[in-house]
Specification:
Residues 1-121, 128-224, 231-353 have a biased composition (Basic and acidic residues). With 371 residues, the chain is mainly alpha-helical. It has one domain (2-152, 162-300). Helices cover 97% and strands 0% of the residues. The protein starts with a helix and ends with a helix. 0% of the residues are buried. The model is unreliable at 156-161 (pLDDT under 50).
C-alpha cells in the first residue's frame, strides 16, 4: 500500500515536471517567435531604409538632370535673347546706316543745290560784270565814237585810214580785255570749284572718320554689352547654382530631419512595442504564475484529496483489519478441529514418508502442511 502511494506521488511529480517543461518550451517558443518577429521587423525596416535611400538617390539624380535641363534651357533662352539683341542691334545699325546714307544724300543734294546756287550766283555775277564791262565798253565806244567823230570833223581826208586802224586796235583791245576777264573768271571759278571739291573731300573724310569712330565705339559698346551679358549670365548661372545648392542643402537637411524624425518615431514605436511586449510578457508571467498558483492550489487540493483518500483508505484498512481480526478469531475457532485433523494427517504422512524413504515427498508434505 505504501509503495502504491509512493508510485502515485512519483507519477504526479513526473507529470508536474512534464507540465513545467512544456510550459518552459512554450515560453521558449514564444520568445523565439518574438525574436523572429523582431528580426523580421528589423529586416523590413532595413529594406524600407534601403528603398528610401534608393528613392532618394533616384530623386537626387532626377533633380540633378532637371537642374541641368533648366540650366541648359536658361542658357538657350539667354543665347536667344542675346541673338535677338544682336539682331536688333544689327537692325539698328542698318537703320543708322540707312539714316547716314539718307543724310549723305541730303547733304549731297544740299551741296549740289549750294553748288548750283553758287554757280548761278557766279554766273549772274559774271553776267553783271560782263554787262558792266559791256556798258563800260559801250561808253568807251561812244566816247571813242565821239572823239572819232570830232576828229573826223576836224581832220583831213588823208587821216581816215588811221582812224580805221585805231578803231580796229580799240576793238582788238576790247576783245583781249574781254578774253582776259573771261579767263580770270574761269580760273576763279575753277579755283572755287577745286576749293569746294577739296572742302567736300575733307568733309567726306571727316564723315568717314566719324563713321569709323562711331563704328569703333559701337563695336566697343557691343563688346562691352556682350561682356556684361556674359558676366551677368555667369553671375546668374552661379547664382542659380548656389540657389540650387542651397535649395538642395535645405532639402537634404529637411530629409535628414525627416529621416531622423522617422528613426526617432521608429525607435519610440519600437520602445513602445518593447514596453508592450514587456508588459505582455509580464502579463504572461503573471498568468503563468496565476496558473502555477492555481496548479499548486489544485495540486494541494488534490494532495488534500489524496490525503483524505488515504485517510479514508487507512480508516477502511483499520476497519478491514478489525474485520480481519474478528474473522481471524472466528476462523481460528473454526480452524482448530481442522488444525487437529491436519496435524493428524501430517503425522500420518510423515510416518508414510519415513516408511518409504522418499525424502523428496517431504517438501510437498511440508507445503501441504503449510496450506
Amino acid at each position: 500500500m505504501h509503495d502504491q502511494r509512493e508510485r502515485e506521488r512519483q507519477t504526479e511529480r513526473d507529470r508536474q515536471t512534464d507540465r513545467e517543461r512544456e510550459r518552459q518550451r512554450e515560453r521558449d517558443r514564444k520568445r523565439e517567435t518574438e525574436r523572429d518577429r523582431d528580426r523580421q521587423r528589423e529586416r523590413e525596416r532595413e529594406r524600407e531604409r534601403e528603398r528610401e535611400r534608393q528613392t532618394e538617390q533616384t530623386e537626387q539624380r532626377e533633380r540633378e538632370r532637371e537642374r541641368e535641363r533648366e540650366e541648359r534651357e536658361r542658357d538657350r533662352q539667354t543665347d536667344r535673347r542675346e541673338e535677338r539683341e544682336r539682331e536688333r542691334e544689327r537692325e539698328r545699325e542698318r537703320e543708322r546706316e540707312r539714316e547716314r546714307e539718307r543724310e549723305r544724300e541730303r547733304e549731297t543734294r544740299e551741296r549740289t543745290r549750294e553748288r548750283e546756287t553758287e554757280r548761278e550766283r557766279q554766273r549772274k555775277k559774271r553776267d553783271r560784270e560782263r554787262e558792266r564791262d559791256r556798258q563800260t565798253d559801250r561808253q568807251t565806244d561812244r566816247q571813242t565814237d565821239r572823239q572819232t567823230t570830232d576828229r573826223q570833223t576836224d581832220s583831213r581826208p588823208t587821216d581816215r585810214p588811221t582812224d580805221r586802224q585805231t578803231d580796229r586796235q580799240t576793238e582788238q583791245t576790247y576783245i583781249e580785255r574781254e578774253e582776259e576777264r573771261e579767263r580770270v573768271r574761269e580760273r576763279e571759278t575753277e579755283t572755287e570749284t577745286e576749293t569746294e571739291t577739296e572742302r567736300e573731300r575733307e568733309r567726306e573724310r571727316e564723315r568717314e572718320r566719324e563713321r569709323e569712330r562711331g563704328e569703333r565705339q559701337r563695336q566697343r559698346d557691343r563688346q562691352t554689352r556682350q561682356r556684361q551679358r556674359q558676366r551677368q549670365r555667369e553671375t546668374d548661372r552661379q547664382t542659380n547654382r548656389q540657389t540650387d545648392r542651397d535649395r538642395e542643402t535645405e532639402t537634404e537637411r529637411q530629409r535628414q530631419r525627416d529621416r531622423e524624425t522617422d528613426r526617432e518615431t521608429d525607435r519610440e514605436t519600437e520602445r513602445q512595442r518593447q514596453r508592450e511586449r514587456e508588459r505582455e510578457r509580464e502579463r504572461e508571467r503573471e498568468r503563468e504564475r496565476e496558473r502555477e498558483r492555481g496548479e499548486r492550489e489544485r495540486e494541494r487540493e488534490r494532495e488534500r484529496e489524496r490525503e483524505r483518500e488515504r485517510e479514508r483508505e487507512r480508516e477502511r484498512e483499520r476497519e478491514r483489519e478489525k474485520e480481519t481480526e474478528t474473522e481471524t478469531e472466528t476462523e481460528t475457532e473454526r480452524e482448530r478441529p481442522r488444525e487437529r485433523q491436519r496435524a493428524e494427517r501430517k503425522r500420518e504422512t510423515d510416518k508414510q514418508t519415513r516408511s518409504f524413504g522418499l525424502g523428496i515427498l517431504r517438501p510437498a508434505a511440508l507445503s501441504i502442511s503449510f496450506i
